[in-house]
Please model this.
Amino acid sequence: MRNKKKFVTSLLCGVSSLVLAAVPVMADADIQKYTNTDFAMNTVVSETLYTTGKDLNATVGDKIREIETGLLSWTDENSQIAKLNAASGETAEVSDELAGYLQKIFQLAEDSGGAFDPTIGKIIRLWDIDGENPHVPEQSELDELLKDAGYEKVSLDGDKVTLEKGATLDLGATGKGIGCDVVADFLKTQTEVSGMILNLGGSSVMAYGEKPDGSDWKVALTDPRDTEGDYLGAITLNGGEFLSTSGDYEKYFMEDGKRYHHILDPKTGYPVWNGLDSVTVICDSGLLADGLSTACFVLGMEDALKLLDKYDADAAFVDEDKNVYLTSGMKDRFELMKNTYTVRDL
Model:
């Protein structure tokens, strides 16, 4: 069993790859609004662009796919990550771009005490939670793979990366955020673009610039236990900010009444059960927003606060008792839309 976000269902309708033609709508005398729906990184990509120039939505989708196939994919043998994994036990050289991402990723892994760990891809695939055979692995299988996991098994020296033999990298937990960063950097070179909202699967969002009418960028927050119903709330983003949500409702299966979801504790190899249903993070980096939402979910609310403070990030925590806890910087951004939830102070 899997829940899919309602806009994903309505747009994809079971099709594995879909691109709809962009639709221009006049926003004012000079600026045009272009909306588009694409598919990249195995998810629906929603784009709304404001520009006095040409429609760039197709280019945006291409750039996301290029970063996936060229750098991040562990399945595409030509990607840099796949080549790193193939060279496990040896030192390999990567591009400056990937080296920069890896430096941030491993700093976050260290700062989170391993709650965020990019070396557990083998364990994620063992569970196959988003595949054809989701199942609870044998403990012996988990123990064997845990031996090769741990961010300490990877060393960085400039553009040179060394994985201990058996260790592998999987950047899926930051992939969508990196995609948002790539698009933001691209838009900075396009002087005709005044604003854009980019949404990758509902879990990673980028806001760039501003709308012609000056109104806020708003992002809907999914109710973790009613994903097909009304939204739990809405969060305001400023231009240049990124949002990421990690939740136990995104990919999961049920067995004996228990929810086995895709956010794994790197220390045990099992899904995290700590009373949280979702964590939403806002900061000035797509990569960090993506990684922090995962790390904070694994850490739990109390320990996550120290990490958020270190990265000058804000968060909304939704727990199993239908409480929404907001950091101080999130309070003015969040609007509750469901009376079945209660907003509480941290």
Notes: The CA atoms of residues 104 and 288 lie 8 Å apart. The mean pLDDT is 91. Residues 57-72 form the longest helix (16 residues). The first strand starts at residue 23 and ends at 26.
